[in-house]
Amino acid sequence: MIYLAAIFVSPLALLLCGKWFQAILNLVLYNVAIVLVVTMVFSWAGVIVWAVGVLHAVLVVHNHKAERRNQALIDAVKGQST
Known about the structure:
Layout: H1 2-8, H2 10-17, H3 20-39, H4 43-81
Helix pairs in contact: 1-2, 1-4, 2-3, 2-4, 3-4
């Protein structure tokens, strides 16, 4: 579900993961993409900037989930050895 948020509203997905600085960076990309698309002069550039922002959000969400999985595994191994 968070991947859908990363595609359609990428700054929100990053906020939900707790990545504040990256969410602000992504919000800047999101706003630049909207401005470029609205001006219609550089609409192709807006789509490219939007795609970069979505890719950034998806990678950050995936990394966040991987960190949580790894931490759960580390906690399980530490609990088993004691």
